[in-house]
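FORM 7B - TANDEM STRUCTURE REPORT

SECTION 1: FIRST PROTEIN
SEQUENCE AND TOKENS:
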Amino acid sequence: MPVLVNYTRCTYTKTCFAANVCPKGTLRVDYILGKVVVDPTVCGDCPGPCLNFCDPVALKFAPDLEELDITQKELDGVLTKEAATLQRADLLRQRKEAEAAAKAEAEKAAFAPMALTSKNFVEEVRGAELPVLIDFWAEWCQPCKQIAPIVEQLAQEFAGKVKFAKVNIDEEPQIAGQLRIQSIPTLMIFFQGQVADMIVGATGKDQLRARLQRVVEAIAQAPSQQDPGTVSPARPVGPPPAPRLVRPSDVMPPRRPGPL
């Protein structure tokens, strides 16, 4: 923790024991200046053993250099005690706002659509317990860029209910070809390896939300497969069957694509 010296309290002697225990050597006795000096920028995350060995309590600490600067100005008389208190309160508010923003960004990133490739498609889509919405897109596609924010917003809204993913058809032409993607943007919703819904072309947020909600509700209402002889009726065995909201023949040619 950064520290500074309060010279109104420091009883300078040529032997400062607090300086002797400084593990980084930043707190030291300057014999030319005739006082104890410290470079708080070097303190870093040091636990501050010097504070425990300063009998006159001349060492002051702060959690960071910004707050330490306020303390220094208060000791120098640049700031009154009241002004210093207000600045500390403002600094605390700024920290909380920054922490909240960082937390929001982290949560957003945690549920952001993941990139699918031919290497992880089977695991992330066919092996998923949740329905998976896949956004097929490309860098040159303007409608794709228009719906991208909508997909990202709904990914936050349906967190824990629907898994979101993206496929760049230029980078993964094999996936796009096997799923017969002929125009973009195309949004496909899979559940248990089957197509539950498909939307071709740009769509509005309300329309896409309604289609997703229909899939989620259909899954929740699907009867569970149970074996009464081996488990309690309250515990379903395996995931519920896929909702048949859209027949595969409605969105794909009759011939099934090969394995990805």
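SECTION 2: SECOND PROTEIN
SEQUENCE AND TOKENS:
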Amino acid sequence: MEFLHSIEVGIYDVILEILKNKFNEKPDDWWYRGIPEMLRKKAAELSEETRGSIPKEQGFYLLSYKVIIESNWKLFATYFDPDNAGKNEAMQWMLDLNELRNKLSHPLRLRQSPLTEDDYAFIKQRKHFIDALCREILPPKN
């Protein structure tokens, strides 16, 4: 589960860094120009429901990131499709990862269908992929 958290946080950080660098004329440009309206509304609604304890820019789910990336494919293709497989094929891993994440979040599903060695290898491979993107894109931490 720790690897999954790390992957999700890494994706979030990479997306925000790229969007904020591209859409930076005004402080909120990245939000309005880079995040699809339906996701902005859901995130803002979640923020309101939690009385702001979840800031709107953190009101996303794993599959939200897939939608953001696909909606801004020209910005993200270099990073998320290095083999030029095409958007659908290149982003399939996020659907697969979400399935594993859901399984891990629901113990009865996990009991019925435990993770396999291949599942663990896939998660580890995706973590390495996202860690490499973070090293490439994010500014160094002091």
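SECTION 3: OBSERVATIONS ON SECOND PROTEIN
The longest helix spans residues 2-22.
The chain has a mean pLDDT of 93.

SECTION 4: SIGNATURE
Preparer initials: ____
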